[in-house]
Design a protein that fits this description.
Elements: H1 5-19, H2 24-33, H3 35-50, H4 55-59, H5 61-74, H6 77-85, H7 92-110, E1 121-123, E2 126-127, E3 138-139, E4 142-145, E5 151-153, E6 158-164, E7 172-176, E8 181-185, E9 189-190, E10 197-198, E11 203-206, E12 217-224, E13 227-229, H8 231-234
Antiparallel strand pairs: 1-4, 2-3, 4-12, 5-11, 6-7, 6-10, 7-8, 8-12, 9-11, 12-13
């Protein structure tokens, strides 16, 4: 009786395992633990027994189709792939560590900066257009409108490194720490002196219009790594 191609393949497998003295139970057990090895053994056995000399058959679509059906019935290729690419489970401790790292990153981005004065922002950071010669085209900070004589506070913990009345900033203060430098300008009065260690939220001066100014306001700058940055991008407590 003539055997079908599928029967030939199954027969080839049986002959191979019988010649090697492997029982059916052992075959199933071995396939579960050594799927990749069995895959190659089976292919070699099939080619050796049923058609090595028949090149036309080996190259035929019928043979490829039957071989694919056979292999899929013996080894779950999808599960085998998923096991090899499976990601390890994240433990509770690892999740907590990830959360702590994210919190630390968030704090680093904010630089722990608060608002020095709660008022209306009348001029933002960066390029701006103006017909007034007193208004620079590249604004290195933000302008917060306020009433003459209103107090403002230090936006950070830090050391007073400069008190000056020179230049367009008029009376101004520079306070810095290991993370960031802040500048408070156009003051009418300054409470602190160079070298003072200042706590965040401490009153350090009063709103004014000294220097190159069009009216009472606080010009506030933030500097990171010797570069001016937009205070609105790093300030912690938005109004």
């Amino acid at each position: 009786m003539m055997l079908t191609d599928e029967e030939k393949i199954q027969k080839a497998e049986e002959i191979y395992y019988r010649r090697n003295g492997i029982k059916s139970k052992e075959i199933n057990k071995d396939k579960k633990s050594h799927s990749i090895r069995n895959l190659f053994i089976t292919i070699i056995a099939v080619l050796a027994i049923i058609g090595y000399k028949n090149k036309d058959f080996l190259l035929s679509e019928e043979f490829k189709s039957q071989l694919k059906i056979f292999l899929n019935s013996k080894i779950d290729i999808n599960n085998l792939w998923n096991k090899n690419t499976e990601q390890p489970e994240i433990t509770e401790d690892e999740e907590l560590q990830t959360e702590n790292i994210e919190k630390q990153d968030s704090q680093e981005i904010s630089y722990e900066v608060i608002w020095p004065y709660k008022g209306t922002i009348t001029s933002n950071f960066g390029e701006r257009e103006s017909t007034d010669k007193r208004v620079t085209s590249n604004h290195t900070g933000i302008d917060i409108a306020g009433n003459m004589g209103d107090e403002f506070v230090s936006a950070i913990d830090g050391k007073v490194t400069l008190i000056s009345e020179e230049g367009d900033l008029g009376k101004h203060i520079k306070i810095e720490n290991e993370k960031i430098t802040t500048v408070y300008a156009h003051c009418s009065e300054i409470y602190v002196k160079e070298g003072d260690e200042i706590k965040q939220g401490t009153a350090i001066g009063k709103i004014g219009s000294t220097g190159n100014s069009t009216g009472p306001h606080l010009h506030f700058e933030t500097i990171k790594n010797n570069e001016y940055v937009d205070p609105l991008n790093i300030i912690e407590n938005i109004i």
